[in-house]
Amino acid sequence: MSTERPAIINALHAGEAVSISHPDMPLLTQAASDAFAALKAFNQAHEIAEMRDLFAEVIGSKLDDTTLVYPPFYTNHGKNITLGKGVFINHACSMLDLGGIEIHDEVMIGPRVNITSENHPVSPAERKTLVPGKVIIKKNAWIGADATILPGVTIGEHTVVAAGAVVTQDVPDNTVVGGVPAKVLKENIAD
């Protein structure tokens, strides 16, 4: 497959809804197959240096030496994930990244966290459409085990998302949220 991103992936990353009947959908399917092949190697790795190199293949960019992702990891594309410095992602996380997932410096992500940047309309007539929504997790946020971050959400700096929370809307800086759906539990948390 070419190193140039297909137009359909660029459209999704730019926030445009795309019908699954789009003529370029086979390119998206091939990109997913490529991601699965790269993930297979990553998910079987045991040495940290090897894991870092293999994960760079999954996302299409080099990881900073201070960033660490534990296998297994799951994604449907990978190339729309960006990771800052000092990021830690624990095992069994899933990131559906067609709409883009941006994780800033010093973020900690617990095990089994799900982040999705894509959705579908509720209307049955429109449901077979991918609707992207970029997810941004800002500096020094901590996402607890089994939390779910939904499309279009921004998690503020120094924020804590409690274990098991389902985040459906933006979270301000220095806040603790939890529950289903997530609600503010504490504001203005200090160092």
CATH superfamily: Hexapeptide repeat proteins
> Which descriptor suits the 3D outline?
globular
Sheet with most strands: strand arrangement: 2-5-8-13-16-18-19
* Weakly predicted, low-confidence segments: none
Major pleated sheet: 7 strands, mixed
How many domain units? 1
The proportion of residues in beta strands is 25-35%
Supply Rg.
16 Å
Q: Topology as H/E string?
A: HEHHEEEEEEEEEEEEEEEEEE
Q: In terms of structural class, how would the helical and strand content be classed?
A: alpha/beta
Pfam family, one: Hexapep
Keywords: Acyltransferase, Repeat, Transferase
Organism: Alteromonas lipolytica
Protein name: Acetyltransferase
What does this structure look like?
- The protein starts with 6 loop residues before the first helix and ends with a strand.
- The protein has a single domain (7-187), classed as UDP N-Acetylglucosamine Acyltransferase, domain 1.
- The chain has helices spanning 7-13, 25-43, 48-59, and strands spanning 18-19, 68-69, 73-75, 81-83, 88-89, 93-96, 101-103, 108-109, 114-116, 118-119, 129-132, 135-137, 142-143, 148-149, 154-155, 160-161, 166-167, 175-178, 183-187.
- Helix 2 packs antiparallel against helix 3.
- The model has no long low-confidence stretch (mean pLDDT 94).
- It contains three helices and 19 strands.
- The protein is an alpha/beta fold and 191 residues long.
- The chain is globular.
- The longest helix is centred in the N-terminal third of the chain and has 19 residues, at 25-43.
- The protein has a seven-stranded mixed β-sheet with strand order 2-5-8-13-16-18-19. Strands 3-6-9-14-17 form a five-stranded parallel β-sheet. Strands 4-7-12-15 form a four-stranded parallel β-sheet, with no helix packed on it.
